[in-house]
Structures are given as C-alpha cells and as structure tokens.
Design goal:
180 residues; eight-stranded antiparallel β-sheet; alpha+beta
C-alpha cells in the first residue's frame, strides 16, 4: 500500500469546469471504494489518470483486460468504453481528470497510447501531499484562478506518468515543448 504523511485517501476531491464545458474539466482527488464494479463499459467526456494506492482491480477496454495493483495507474480515455472491477479492498485511488484536449496532446507527444492503458506510475509521499494540497486549493479557487490550477494539474499528471519512461520528466518536457 502507498501511504503518505497524512491520510489523504478518503473522499477528498474537487471538480471544476474551466470555460463551462467538458473540455475544461479540472478534477482531482482521493477516494476509497468498495469491492465490485466501479464502472461497466462506461464512457466519460474527459480524460483521467487514476492511480491505485491500495487494493487491486481489473481494468478492461478495447486493448484487453489488465490487472491493476498499488503503484500502477490506468487511463480513462475520453469517449472510449472501459470497465473497472475492484477485486481487493480496501481500494484507494487518486486521480486527475482534465479535458479531452489534454489527452490528444499527450498522445501526439507519444507520452500515452490507447494500447497501454495500465502501467507503472510514481506517486511518492511528497507527490501525494502536493496532490492533497491541490485538491483543497482547486476546491476554493476563484474562477479567475482556474487556468493556474489547470497548469498545476498538468504538472502533477506529468509527474505521475513520466518517471517510468526512459529519461523521465525531462523527456516528457522535451516531447511536449513542440506541441505547446
């Protein structure tokens, strides 16, 4: 199980819309869930990265069926059906959900693919603490501050997905620079 200095893995989340549309989704948080189906062939309008902090699950989509364990993350691609069955509890997760344009950018940069929806991630205790702080900050942010939180969540997301890659976060920054 992954733990941080504080217990951030209860129902602790924030959801906002930048520009009032699904393309401007800004959501992040921590949840504890029960055994069983979390979703069955559901389609979501936004892109999410979900990290397993504790427990186990079975994720399936068009690429096949994948086991998910602590330290791994999975992608919920916008508009693409997926299922998640929680098989070992307690299931504790954290997630970042952003609008579909971020998904397209990450795919174009070669940082994520539809054929690898589950992989190792890096969620250190310091990262978990920073994420918990961002949940609180996003929840209380004024509308004018939402673009700043979009950038913060993009940075946290890159930290989640980049370290397992060869070259880590520096490679992610180099790949994204031409796309920005």
């Amino acid at each position: 199980a992954m733990r941080s200095g504080g217990d951030h893995v209860t129902a602790h989340w924030a959801f906002r819309l930048l520009g009032g549309t699904d393309a401007g989704t800004l959501s992040c948080g921590f949840l504890t869930k029960r055994r069983g189906w979390d979703s069955r062939q559901s389609r979501r309008p936004s892109f999410s990265v979900v990290a397993c902090l504790e427990g186990a699950a079975r994720y399936s989509d068009a690429s096949g069926q994948h086991e998910v364990h602590p330290g791994q993350l999975f992608f919920r691609f916008s508009g693409r059906p997926h299922s998640l069955e929680i098989t070992a509890v307690p299931w504790r997760e954290c997630w970042i959900s952003l609008g579909e344009p971020i998904e397209r950018l990450l795919i174009a940069a070669g940082l994520i693919t539809y054929v690898e929806p589950v992989r190792a991630g890096t969620m250190t205790p310091a990262w978990l603490d920073e994420m918990a702080g961002e949940v609180d900050a996003l929840r209380s942010a004024g509308e004018a501050d939402l673009p700043l939180h979009l950038v913060r969540l993009q940075g946290l997301l890159l930290q989640m997905i980049a370290p397992p890659m060869r070259g880590g976060l520096d490679l992610a920054r180099r790949r994204l620079a031409p796309a920005l």
